[in-house]
Amino acid sequence: MLNQFSRTQLIYGPEAMEKLAASRVAVFGIGGVGGYVVEALVRSGVGALDLIDDDKVCLTNLNRQIIATRKTVGKYKVDVAEERVHDINPDCVVRKYQTFYLPETADQFDFREYDYVVDAIDTVTGKLGIIEQAREAGVPVISSMGAGNKTNATLFEVADIYETSVCPLAKVMRRECRKRGIEKLKVVYSKEEPKRPLEDMSISCRQHCICPPGTERKCTQRRDIPGSTAFVPSVVGLIIAGEVINDLTA
Questions:
Q1: Which of 46, 61, 93, 186 would be 41's cystine partner, CB 3.0–4.6 Å?
Q2: pTM (2 decimals)?
Q3: Are 189 and 159 within 8 A, CB to CB?
Q4: Is 1 part of any domain?
Q5: Is residue 230 part of a domain?
Q6: Could you read off the pLDDT of 159-172 as tens digits, one per residue?
């Protein structure tokens, strides 16, 4: 019967579509990368999604995040993403966690419930926690390395963490994974040398913070505020989603 996933089924076949409909995927971080992961997963027929992010849509997100529009500024990202998911596929089961993943919040999640885990957050401590929990649960995980301060989307590739080079975040992750005995980790990364963002205080969050009062993790608290584009995070997110879909249907 013709349905919204018919064109995908022409590629993967009915059995694979049944696998996707029965799969639950957790996406940690619903930003420039994670938002596109969610978009592609729901459009591919994944039947259940866990969305994890504590942030609200900010005006500065409009240049790259698929969930960011003038109408969604100020709303929690998980709420906006859930609404978008259900506009695409009302049957997709969504669980929202308005929280920032760290070791202190890890006990909120039972990784044994997941068929796949996507790490699209940008803190090393959180990334390592996600990877270790997924490993303990025996669940496949894919991790996004640095997408900020880069402009060549064609240089991103899928690799094991120990095969990466150049990317500063990947360098830190290699070291920390080795310390923890993590033998392998699928990542998406680029060998492009990151650009140094301009220090233009006329447009900097440092002096013009627009985060609402009570925001726990403001950009002003970051060591560096990275620059970004509309086309790099989206490509990273779509590559990740493709890996998840192909692995789930293999």
A1: 46
A2: 0.93
A3: yes
A4: no
A5: yes
A6: 999 999 999 999 99
